[in-house]
Amino acid sequence: MGFKDVIGNNGVKKILHRALKQKKLPNSLLFAGPEGIGKKQTALIVAKALNCLKKTSDACEECTHCKAINNRNFPDVMVISPAKDVLKIDQMRLLKDTAYMKPMAGRKRVFIVCEAEKMNDEASNSLLKILEEPPPFSHITLVTPNPYRIIPTLKSRCQIFLFSPIPKEEIQKALVARGFQPEKAKILSLLVDGNLKEALSLDWEEVRSQRNQAWDLFLALHRREKAAPLLKQYSVSRGVIKEDLEKTLEILALFCRDVILIKEQAEPEFLLNPDFEQDLRGLARSVPLSQAMDFLSEMDFAIAALRRNLNVNVLVSSIFSNFLERSHV
Ligand SMILES: [Zn+2]
Prior knowledge:
The protein is α/β, with parallel strands linked by helices. The protein has 15 helices and 5 strands. Zinc ion is lined by residues 48, 52-54, 59-60, 62-63, 65-66.
């Protein structure tokens, strides 16, 4: 898989490709950005490009070096991941010691440190010198979804590349290319916040049942009837999983958006939940536009609050009581 096969982040890919071509790629890199958007994949392409037998600024994927790197048995490319959730000093020492030795089989030694934010202080400090002055034949790429957890002295020694979530349309296209039905691909692309890896790993049946549950909750909140038992699912006593709640709120927000779209006479192709079209149209007849707007702003507010890491249990009760009050003003 060369640069062209990585979905999204065209700007980053272009800069890396150009730097490789001009042989000006910095030796210490930091790839930062949310999960599931191709950071490690890109780091591996860079590792292949630095060692490929046919190309110098991309991976050919056919030569023995590219294949060995893909199979993780190329002696000059080391991928380091946390053991038991910590990157330890011993792992970094091994990196450091190896990085000062000339490559054995390829042109460059490459070290990819995954989840680099999981380095403890000792491990971070041990890397300072090598990141400051790496030998010309060694490249070190730190990969992280949480750059703010990496100590500043480490960050300042690396050239930082910020990866962005993948646009929904590109995720949808990638899913269709992998054999998903267009309607399912569209729905999945809306639920993953630009995380292609998550989109590929979601189980459609589970997604459908989660959406059906969210739809029941949506109706209950709208009618204020039977809401209590449904709300219990999210109650403190049952224990709230933040990600589950966030996902449910996102699905509710998508339903709200569709109700608004229908009320604004949008064409059916713009609906975000095409498989709920009949139900949504039925509901839209009995909901004033202003109420749908209020629903939506309440959901957006709650999602933002959750992402700010406010206490989940406190939020749950306030979200839903506000929601119920507002919907019946
Ligand atoms: Zn190759």
